[in-house]
Design brief:
By secondary structure, the protein is α+β, with helices and mostly antiparallel strands. The chain is built from 8 helices and 8 strands; from the N terminus they run H-E-H-E-E-H-H-E-H-E-H-E-E-H-H-E. The N terminus is likely disordered.
Length: 269
């Protein structure tokens, strides 16, 4: 009986250890998805019509053709009538295949034609291909309950930030985010959504970091960054990283910020 008990105990312990090891291995798997940041500039007076087309047709057709809708936003200050959104795909090749199927879909052709009876909705489209950094935890940023309910428990303001690194310092910039910045953002009330570098064939891929934060409000963002900027750990990390990099890790004027709010059809809210 004693031997049977020991055998069972060993089996349970071994199983638990195996599951823990497997979960850790799974968690450590790199995100190899292709991410696409798309910015649409709506023609004057057409932004609402563009939203309607996405809400009623485009979003579900993207899903139908294997694209993952990450989030849809509009800038808080939006004189250029922008719609900003991010899609993800298993690979760049999968992206091209999905878009080919999407534009050939009869439902899309019908929806596009109907929405443009009184003129084209979009004046310009910008597209940037990105890959997740090794410290990006995009999936953890989702409020799954809110997504399933189609709404968030509390409205959030999102911030799209783009950094331009000084020559040969993108690696040092990523290291500073990985080892210090991401954790300090959380400490000071900011939510890390996702972090990306550009794919190698994109312009300025060797100097660009793109990331998104979420805040309770624009004022909360201001307070969070104020506390972050005076944190002794940040001061120390910044000093050490700049000594290693031979100076500032971003060029002068190389930090761009756009505050955004999610659309009513955005999966991420």
């Amino acid at each position: 009986m004693r031997n049977l008990f020991l055998s069972l105990a060993y089996t349970v312990a071994f199983t638990a250890m195996t599951l823990m090891t497997g979960n850790k291995a799974k968690a450590a798997e790199p995100d190899k998805s292709c991410y696409e940041l798309r910015v649409y500039y709506a023609n004057e007076g057409k932004l609402d019509d563009l939203h309607a087309r996405f809400r009623d047709h485009t979003v579900k057709l993207f899903t139908k053709h294997g694209m993952k809708n990450i989030g849809y936003w509009v800038p808080l200050d939006n004189p250029e009538n922008k719609l900003i959104y991010i899609l993800s795909y298993p690979s760049r090749e999968a992206r091209d295949s999905s878009w080919k199927a999407f534009v050939a879909d009869p439902e899309w052709k019908e929806a596009k034609a109907a929405s443009e009876k009184n003129g084209a909705l979009v004046a310009k489209v910008e597209s940037t291909f990105m890959q997740a950094t090794d410290y990006s935890k995009l999936e953890q940023a989702y409020d799954l309950r809110a997504m399933k309910a189609g709404k968030s428990e509390a409205a959030r303001v999102f911030e799209l930030r783009t950094y331009t690194a000084t020559p040969n310092n993108l690696g040092n910039l990523n290291a500073r985010f990985r080892d210090h910045t991401v954790r300090l953002f959380t400490k000071h009330g900011m939510t890390n959504i996702g972090y990306w570098n550009l794919m190698k064939d994109q312009k300025d891929a060797d100097i660009t970091l793109v990331y998104i934060l979420a805040h309770k409000s624009r004022e909360a963002a201001k307070e969070g960054f104020k506390a972050f900027g005076t944190d002794p750990e940040w001061t120390k990390a910044r000093k050490e990283s700049e000594e290693k990099g031979g100076g500032p890790l971003t060029i002068k004027g190389g930090v761009k910020s756009v505050f955004m709010v999610p659309t009513d059809y955005s999966p991420m809210r």
